Amino acid sequence: MFELPQKVLFKHCDPAGIVFYPRYFEMMNDCVEAWFDARLGWPFETIHGAGGVPTAAIATKFAAPSRHGDQLVLHLKVIKLGRTSLTYEMTATCDGAMRFVTEATLVYVGNSGRPTPWPAPIRAKIEAEQAL
Amino acid sequence: MFELPQKVLFKHCDPAGIVFYPRYFEMMNDCVEAWFDARLGWPFETIHGAGGVPTAAIATKFAAPSRHGDQLVLHLKVIKLGRTSLTYEMTATCDGAMRFVTEATLVYVGNSGRPTPWPAPIRAKIEAEQAL
Amino acid sequence: MFELPQKVLFKHCDPAGIVFYPRYFEMMNDCVEAWFDARLGWPFETIHGAGGVPTAAIATKFAAPSRHGDQLVLHLKVIKLGRTSLTYEMTATCDGAMRFVTEATLVYVGNSGRPTPWPAPIRAKIEAEQAL
Amino acid sequence: MFELPQKVLFKHCDPAGIVFYPRYFEMMNDCVEAWFDARLGWPFETIHGAGGVPTAAIATKFAAPSRHGDQLVLHLKVIKLGRTSLTYEMTATCDGAMRFVTEATLVYVGNSGRPTPWPAPIRAKIEAEQAL
């Protein structure tokens, strides 16, 4: 499983002193971006220009609020690999306590903006991730 | 049904020239905030300080990308009213074409941060909204 | 002078319940984008693709904090027009009281990413704005 | 001098593929927050609740655009310490090349929201930072 530490910063928090939930989606995107870079060796800055990996669907349950200063860890696990898509589960925990659980599907699109099969070497790396 | 127009602005868009999906969640929050103000007469700036309406769960399907300059309309409809919660469906369309569909549940919390029954006059207004 | 109303929304505010200052810069960008559209007839979605108007310098003094629910008005005035640049002053007020004063310079760049003279019809419109 | 590395991520970039300048102000705020934590031992999550350090003025020159994937380093140096305020200079570089230079003044405010003298132990640490 891939992990990304993320301290809750001032910019993430709302007037109630807890994470404003759209900011969680930025954290999730950062985690996916870090995973593509660290595990697939295919950073977003390389993918973009020639294509992209837009999110087609995302569903999140927020289990408990996160406060300014909390040391979160985001965990990403691929749960399904399609011909042109992948589905991941992501959780965020703080000292082992759950903060959110997300399931999301993203799609690889080429220059055309249309769903495109994963390049073979990338597909092999995603499969290796699933086998972990 | 409540509607909020939202032009896609420069700030919403990513290097692919389409809306960065965490920005959609800001738009959704703006729409919920505008609905509380316009339809319930209970603006967020009044609720906060004494409580809040955090989002407990949210699930979104993105049907098609939105581009810079697109004239979106967000549509909000309450689909379920609980003792301390409400569930809404929100869609965004552009010239009638679907861009996203969201279903989300938010919870009313009082000073304590714990789920709290809706105040009776607010509950009555939400029921009136459902009856529309 | 060009004016854009902007209510302070939940998303703009920090744990102190006042506008998080990077959010002010988003408001400023929205105001410049609205001015290009409304007054120059040259919306950002048309400019981009073939060029852009990046900000080269910006200086802001924050006179007083803005709170959630405040009804701000942003005011934009061109104070200098260069061959490839323009300098504007922007203020934000709430019920006439000053919240911030900004002076910023943006540069027109073409496809090349290099400073490019304003197209003549746009230049004429900017001059008309200055004469108001 | 205090340094904070910051890779340019997807979320920072606009349709032109370069950093959207309000995102730079978030990076600056992150750098100030990290400096308070690492060098003053006074993290924002401790300061807030009992006060804050709002920005009173900020002026930035953008020397060159930053692209997705760029490895920036932010550098913070205190250049003036007042009774209730401090002024810092911050630069961002990429492989030694300048991207922006900022000068900003922030003010310590107590519970009242009014400028308040720095606590003596904090003042001593800021002076030690200046002496570096």
Notes on the protein architecture:
Four copies of one chain form a homotetramer. In chain A, a hairpin with a 2-residue loop joins strand 4 and strand 5 (97-107). Chain A is α+β, with helices and mostly antiparallel strands and 132 residues long. In chain A, strands 1-3-4-5-2 form a five-stranded antiparallel sheet. Chain A has one domain (2-131): Hotdog Thioesterase (Thiol Ester Dehydrase, Chain A, Roll). Helices cover 26% and strands 35% of the residues of chain A. The interface between A and B is medium-sized, with 24 and 24 residues. Strand 2 of chain C pairs antiparallel with strand 2 (55-62) of chain D, so a sheet runs across the interface.
Secondary structure: helix percent of chain A: 25-40%
Quaternary organisation: homotetramer
Uncertain ranges of chain A: none
Question: Can you summarize the main beta sheet of chain A?
Answer: 5 strands, antiparallel
Order of helices and strands of chain A: EHHEEEEH
Biggest interface reads: A-B, 24 and 24 residues
| Average of the residue pLDDT scores of chain A | 96
Question: Got a strand count of chain A?
Answer: 5
- Count of discrete domains of chain A: 1
Overall CATH architecture of chain A: Roll
Write down the Rg of chain A: 15 Å
The CATH top-level class label of chain A: Alpha Beta
What is the general shape of chain A?
Answer: elongated
Please count the helical segments of chain A: 3
Beta-strand residue percentage of chain A = 25-35%
